């Protein structure tokens, strides 16, 4: 199936007869768009640092639209959620969910630009991030509780352990599937809807769907980040 609105096609050609999400042939298109997203993100971060250095005294937001203000609005929701969830130790667990939020958000927003596709509409990207969250969850759990962390997989009473152990293992593995498929499905569907209507009515109808797409980009980035933080909290929580 031909993929519409890919800037990569302006410079490269695809091999015929290769289609499907699980094609064994290396697909350079998602890598190309991921590199573009990374370069944009690096540029935004450098602009943010430059503006921050130019400010004297306390960091007070200005009335004008600036990179600093945009970053403040974007990360405030994530920071507030982390504070409520982790309490006084929120700074220890903020970097990973915040980095995930920014990376996913910019990757999603890339799909709103004509001739680009969102990096997270490729299942390989979403699975990779979900696996990282899965590994970090158990790393934090073992770091806080030691090997006693395994007890949470065995249930509240010892005679239920043979039943609880496989159920808990399946439950934790299902987190990788739910995180990756949710993000991939929403971004792929949103991009396809905008693409289809853009072909039917280039200017009028797609504008409404692009506005909705912007909302989807924000919500999906926050959900992935929020769930990652919740998994970390469950792993380190003494009550759990």
In short:
The chain is mostly helical and 240 residues long. 68% of the residues lie in helices and 0% in strands.
Distance between the termini: 47 Å
**How many domains, as an integer?**
1
Q: Give the topology string: H per helix, E per strand.
A: HHHHHHH
Mean pLDDT: 79
Gross morphology is: globular
Helices, by number, come to 7
As a whole number of angstroms, the C-alpha radius of gyration is 21 Å
Low-confidence stretches: 1-22
Class per helix and strand makeup: mainly alpha
Largest sheet: none
* Beta-strand residue percentage: under 5%
Strand segment count: 0
Share of helix, binned: 55-70%
Structure description:
With 240 residues, the protein is an all-alpha fold. The chain has one domain. 68% of the residues lie in helices and 0% in strands. The chain contains seven helices and no strands. The chain has helices at 28-54, 67-86, 90-93, 95-110, 123-145, 161-200, 205-236.
Give the secondary structure arrangement, pairings included.
Elements: H1 28-54, H2 67-86, H3 90-93, H4 95-110, H5 123-145, H6 161-200, H7 205-236
Helix pairs in contact: 1-4, 2-4, 2-7, 4-7, 5-6, 5-7, 6-7
Which terms would index this structure?
240 residues, mainly alpha, 68% helix, 0% strand, globular, disordered N terminus
